[in-house]
Amino acid sequence: MVTIDDYRAPGPDIFVFPPIIDGGPFWFTKPVLLAVACAGLVIAFCWAAFAKPKIVPRGVQNAGEYVYFFVREQIAKPFLGADTDRWMGLLFTLFLLILTWNLVGLVPFIQFPASSYIAFPGVLAVAVLILKVYLGVKHQGFTGYLKNMSVPPGLPKWALGIYAPMELAHQFLFSWATHAIRVCANMFAGHMLLAFFSSVGFWFLVEKLSPLGAPIGLLGVVMTILLTAFELFIMILQAYLFTMLSAMYIAGGLRAEH
Q1: b/e string for 109-120 if b means 16 or more Cβ within 10 A?
Q2: Where, by residue number, does the polypeptide cross the bilayer (predicted)?
C-alpha cells in the first residue's frame, strides 16, 4: 500500500539548473535564457506598440498605452511630479521587465519565474541605486546629499552619531537589499508553494492513485488553482512595488528627502 510517507516534496533543488548546452558555459542555464528572452519580449512589445503610433490606438498600441498610463499616473507621478515624463522610459521598462520575469512562472512548460534568482532583480536594484546617488550628488552636491539623507531637520546633535550611520547604512545597503529581495523572495516562495501542491496532486491522482490518497490529490489540485490565481496577483503587485521604489529613489536623488 502506498502511504503519504512515500511522497517526497520538492525542495530547493528545483531552482538548480544544469547548463543548457552540454560542455557550454556553466552560467547559460534556463533562468538566464528566460531573463534574456523576457527582455526581448519587452523590446518587441514596445516596438510593436510605439514604433508607429496611431492617433486612435488599437491592438498592441492600445495595451501599451494603457500600461504606460498606469505606470505614469499610479507609480511615477506621485513621487516625481513635474519630472515624471523625463523618467517614464526607465520606469515603464522596469515595470514591464519585472512583470514579464514574474509571469513566465505561470506559463505552461516554462513555469519558472526568472526574478526568483536574486541576480536579476539585484542588478536592476544596483542600477537604480547608482542612478540615485549620481542624481543626488549632481543636484544637491556631495556634502549636501549626504547631509540631506542622513540628518533630518531638528535632530539633536547628541543623536547625530547614532542616527546618521544607521541612515547611511539604510540608504546604501538596506534599501538595495529590500528593493531586490522583496520581489525575489516572493517569487521564490510562490514557486515553491505551486511546485509543492501541484506535485501532491500529480502524485496522489496520477502517479500513485489510491482510494485513501485521492482526497489528498484533489486538495493539491484545488490549492494549485487557488494559489495560481493568488500568485498572479502577487506577480503584478511585486512589479508595481519594484517600480514604485525605483521612482521613490530617483525622486530622493533629485530632491532632498528631508
Answers
A1: eeebbbbbbbeb
A2: 32-51, 87-110, 116-137, 188-206, 218-241
Please enumerate in sequence order all residues whose Cβ is within 8 A of that of 207, keeping only pairs 6 or more positions apart, or say none: none
Closest to 16 (Cα-Cα) out of 120, 109, 110, 112 = 112
Q: How far apart are CA 239 and CA 234, in angstroms?
A: 9
Instruction: Give residues with Cβ within 8 angstroms of 230, minimum separation 6.
Output: none
Residue 244 in grid coordinates: 514604485
Residue-wise pLDDT for 92-147, tens only, equals: 999 999 999 999 999 998 999 999 999 999 999 999 999 999 998 898 888 887 77
Rounded CA-CA distance 215/220 in Å is: 9
Which value, to the nearest 10 degrees, does the dihedral of the CA atoms of residues 31, 37, 39, 41 take? Answer: -140
Alpha-carbon distance 37 to 15, whole Å?
18
C-alpha cell read off for 57: 490606438
CB count within 10 Å of CB 56 equals 6
Eight-class DSSP state of 29: -
Give CA angle at 19 (27, 197), nearest 5°: 105
- Cα distance between residue 8 and residue 195, in whole Å: 12
Side-chain half-sphere exposure of 246, counting CA atoms within 13 A: 32
pTM above 0.70, yes or no: yes
